[in-house]
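re: the backbone from monday

yeah here it is again, tokenized this time
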């Protein structure tokens, strides 16, 4: 087709309301190499209108702007861009376009209502701008006055932060040389509170703004920002790290690349073999990133960097280092001098040795960062580089005669075993390492005992890998627990014993320890947990011990029936550290039986017994009635609030555990309202859409489906969440998902699609309609019914309804389902036809092409259900109303007799159907197909 033909085809599709198809045709037209500028301007302008109709306002602006580049005074392009700007809330740009349009086309009436809306808003904005300008000047005068009262200066700094957050305030600050003045302030000011206020203001200014970020980079520089982050002021270090993160995202325009990656992921999920986009940065952007990277690497080991500054640098790298969510620093990090070694040094740091300044969280930060880097490596070459760096670090520490070096090495191993376990296990294989750990555990120094016991505990994560160590370690652990004086060491030794006691898992027939030993260990853990004098670390270790022991159902019952222990667990889990979250999440998984269970058929059990193979048996206290009661007690104790705290972690495995507990709780309809009231929807959306394992995302999505089925969507999914929940629900419509997940997703989408057309349009945009239609042919009756019920709502969307006009068998399928044995299925199919026949003559004609259509529809008209009967009569009325030709075909057989019979029914619940029949007969009389009998 030529450009002209494509343009006309696009126009025809647009007039028919097929906006997606029109958009596609216009796009094809733009791909022609030889195309006149005038044609190009018109096509861009038309495509802008399609995007407006599809609520793609950014794209509408882009297309209108392209058209205006060619024809700057085109009123239609200006009008469309103006409307799109207004929809996005860019009122100043919208007002400029409207004013310019009125100037070039004063008689244009379409723009006058827009100007009427925008003019008072712009006047108010101008007044506010003048007020804001005055405020900025005042804040600068007070903050930069070294003789002013400190309290007033700090208040001025905080006010400046608030002003910088606002778009207008930020522009005014920059216009008044705010960045240069803040540079001088940061160079000379000594008070950390004032410095933090200045940094926070810059952080707000640079957020998603490349020009301002570049100004900060030029004026202040990475070196000075690094010096500020290295200062021993916790809040200041965190604020500088946030500022650098904003600058990195803005200067590299990472959001643009992220948008391309999201689009790529969407296409890949839909089976489109598209090409992965490349993240390309120019020389300037690379120079900036290099400076930040080298600065952060130096901060890992530099002795003058404060403990909080070191933590801030690692937190920034956690956000930015990987290929998937960051700036692709993984390869550079492992090849750098001091990257991997610096993290291992932090992981092995011991405060008593006065090595690097660290906080209680520093070692966990190092472990998380090492894990993230290890998981992001690609290929054997990168794995080998990483392992070589780790090997070199430990060989150097173990080769020296210095005992402190060996202690630091053992502590670093302990952290590796909590992060990249494979690497930690590799170091455990070094000759003599186990001996060093056991020797330190029997040392006279408490710190050596504590570090050694921690390493032994973490090395005991896999039974088959640590049997030899445990054989020697158990007597040492028992000695430290029974004879030690230090509670911190005793609780760690106790956890080691708990791990040994938990190796049987949930199998009630396997007991490696003496009968009742797990109960005894659990009581000891609960004692440490409820000790009011115990510190948070002691409670964390006690929680971890219970996490292992609660695989035993007897222990589960002991825990949930101990109010003090339960309250202590809930309290600790509400304010967790990174070292506690996995243990707390695992504990809740075990208590609620949210783990996977291997189902074995009776035949397989008998076969296993015959072959003398071990068959795991369920504990009597793990039966449904016990689990239900445990969940009730946990919910009443506040477990749902704990889950909201625990999900906020970098660990995908922990997030999966939280997802598992959520769905177990949501399986009981009585608790779904509590999940919503506690703010669980926001958490579940994050678990379903962001960081999580694949299984965790599925489980979170299914929990959202359960909420959407039984709760009012208007209350459950307020605001934007109504649209955000659509994607995870559609992800459950997959052949790889279970039938229950398919069914619940369809039921949830049915509820949501009944709310508004904007929600239905979101389902269309997320490519949900083809997936819903797929399940209309499912063999499972309930799934098929749910999909038809969902489609009954979806046909109220214009785009979906238009698809029934095309060359396909969709109408035929719905007509055939009107004769289904399932009344609910008939109700849904007839409801869809009632909606479709109201607006489409093509659908009415398609019905008449179905074999025995009259018998199929008469079955609906005479249905015992008043609601279904009404829908059948409504369909016939719509068809008769469409045209005389269709009316004659519809009424030439027995349908007319049935309509006349229904039109005289007296039962109150049949009156809607009776009314429809009367209206149909009245239409038939007007068409002169029938006439009134003079004898009545």
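seq for it, each position gets an aa:
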């Amino acid at each position: 087709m030529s450009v002209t033909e494509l343009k006309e085809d696009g126009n025809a599709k647009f007039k028919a309301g097929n906006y997606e198809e029109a958009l596609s045709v216009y796009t094809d037209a733009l791909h022609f190499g030889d195309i006149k500028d005038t044609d190009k301007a018109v096509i861009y302008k038309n495509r802008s209108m399609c995007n407006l109709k599809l609520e793609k306002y950014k794209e509408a602006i882009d297309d209108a702007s392209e058209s205006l580049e060619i024809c700057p005074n085109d009123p239609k392009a200006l009008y469309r861009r103006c409307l799109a700007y207004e929809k996005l809330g860019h009122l100043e740009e919208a007002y400029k376009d409207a004013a310019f349009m009125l100037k070039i086309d004063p008689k244009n009436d379409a723009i006058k209502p827009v100007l009427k809306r925008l003019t008072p808003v712009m006047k108010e904005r101008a007044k506010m701008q003048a007020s804001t300008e005055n405020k900025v000047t005042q804040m600068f005068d007070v903050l930069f006055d070294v003789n002013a009262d400190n309290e007033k200066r700090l208040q001025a700094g905080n006010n400046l932060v608030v002003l910088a957050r606002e778009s207008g305030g930020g522009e005014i600050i920059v216009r008044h040389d705010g960045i240069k003045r803040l540079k001088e302030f940061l160079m000379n000011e000594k008070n950390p509170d004032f410095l933090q206020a200045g940094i926070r203001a810059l952080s707000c200014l640079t957020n998603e703004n490349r020009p301002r970020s570049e100004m900060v980079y030029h004026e202040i520089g990475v070196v000075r920002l690094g010096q500020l982050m290295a200062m021993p002021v916790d809040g200041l270090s965190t604020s500088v790290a946030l500022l650098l993160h904003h600058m990195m995202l803005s200067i590299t325009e990472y959001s643009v690349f992220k948008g391309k990656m999201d689009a790529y992921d969407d296409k890949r999920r839909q089976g489109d073999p598209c090409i992965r986009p490349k993240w390309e940065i120019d020389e300037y952007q690379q120079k900036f990133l290099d400076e930040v990277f080298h600065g952060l690497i130096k901060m890992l080991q530099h002795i003058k960097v404060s403990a909080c500054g070191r933590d801030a640098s690692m937190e920034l790298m956690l956000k930015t280092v990987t290929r998937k969510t960051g700036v692709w620093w993984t390869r550079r990090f492992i090849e750098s001098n001091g990257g991997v070694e610096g993290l291992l040094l932090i992981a092995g740091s011991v405060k008593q040795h006065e090595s690097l300044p660290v906080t209680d969280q520093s070692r966990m930060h190092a472990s998380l960062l090492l894990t993230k880097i290890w998981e992001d490596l690609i290929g054997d070459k990168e794995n080998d580089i990483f392992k070589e760096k780790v090997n070199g670090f430990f060989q150097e520490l173990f080769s020296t005669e210095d005992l402190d070096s060996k202690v630091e090495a053992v502590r670093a191993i302990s952290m590796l075993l909590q992060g990249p376990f494979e690497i930690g296990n590799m170091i455990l294989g070094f000759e003599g390492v186990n001996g060093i750990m056991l020797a330190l555990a029997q040392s006279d120094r408490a710190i050596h005992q504590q570090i050694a016991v921690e390493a032994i505990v973490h090395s005991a994560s896999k039974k088959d890998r640590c049997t030899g160590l445990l054989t020697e370690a158990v007597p040492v652990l028992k000695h430290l627990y029974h004879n030690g004086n230090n509670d911190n060491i005793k609780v760690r030794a106790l956890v080691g014993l708990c791990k040994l006691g938990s190796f049987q898992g949930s199998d009630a027939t396997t007991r490696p320890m003496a009968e009742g030993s797990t109960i005894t260990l659990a009581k000891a853990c609960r004692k440490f947990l409820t000790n009011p004098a115990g510190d948070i670390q002691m409670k964390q270790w006690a929680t971890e011990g219970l996490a292992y022991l609660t695989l035993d159902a007897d222990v589960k019952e002991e825990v949930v029936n101990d109010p003090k222990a339960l309250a202590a667990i809930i309290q600790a889990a509400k304010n967790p550290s990174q070292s506690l979250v996995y243990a707390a999440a695992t504990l809740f998984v075990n208590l609620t039986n949210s783990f996977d269970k291997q189902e074995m058929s009776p035949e397989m059990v008998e076969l296993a017994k015959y072959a003398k193979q071990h068959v795991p048996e369920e504990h009597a206290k793990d039966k449904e009635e016990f689990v239900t009661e445990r969940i009730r007690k946990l919910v009443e104790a506040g477990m749902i609030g704990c889950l909201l705290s625990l999900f906020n972690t970098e660990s995908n495995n922990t997030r999966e555990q939280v997802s598992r507990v959520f769905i177990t709780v949501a399986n009981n309809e009585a608790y779904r309202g509590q999940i919503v009231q506690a703010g669980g929807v926001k958490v579940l959306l994050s678990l379903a859409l962001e960081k999580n394992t694949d299984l965790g995302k599925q489980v979170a999505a299914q929990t959202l489906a359960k909420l959407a089925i039984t709760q009012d969507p208007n209350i459950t999914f307020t605001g934007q969440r109504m649209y955000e929940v659509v994607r995870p629900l559609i992800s459950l419509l997959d052949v790889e998902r279970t039938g229950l997940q398919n069914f619940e997703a369809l039921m949830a989408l049915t509820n949501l699609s009944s709310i508004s057309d904007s929600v239905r349009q979101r389902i269309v945009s997320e490519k949900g309609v083809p997936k819903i239609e797929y399940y209309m042919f499912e063999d499972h009756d309930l799934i098929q019914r749910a999909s038809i019920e969902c489609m009954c709502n979806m046909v109220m969307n214009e785009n979906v309804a238009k698809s029934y006009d095309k060359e396909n068998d969709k109408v035929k399928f719905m007509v055939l389902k009107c004769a289904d044995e399932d009344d609910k299925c008939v109700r849904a199919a007839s409801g869809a036809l009632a909606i479709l026949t109201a607006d489409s003559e093509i659908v009415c004609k398609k019905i008449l092409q179905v074999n025995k259509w009259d018998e199929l529809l008469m079955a609906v008209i005479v249905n015992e259900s008043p609601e279904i009967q009404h829908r059948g009569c409504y369909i016939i009325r719509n068809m008769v109303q469409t045209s005389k030709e269709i009316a004659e075909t519809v009424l030439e057989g027995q349908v007319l007799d049935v309509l006349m019979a229904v039109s005289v029914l007296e039962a109150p619940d049949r009156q809607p159907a009776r009314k429809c029949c009367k209206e149909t007969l009245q239409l038939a009389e007007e068409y002169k197909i029938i006439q009134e009998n003079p004898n009545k």
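The mean pLDDT is 87. The chain has six domains: 3-108, 177-327, 329-431, 502-628, 647-799, 804-936.
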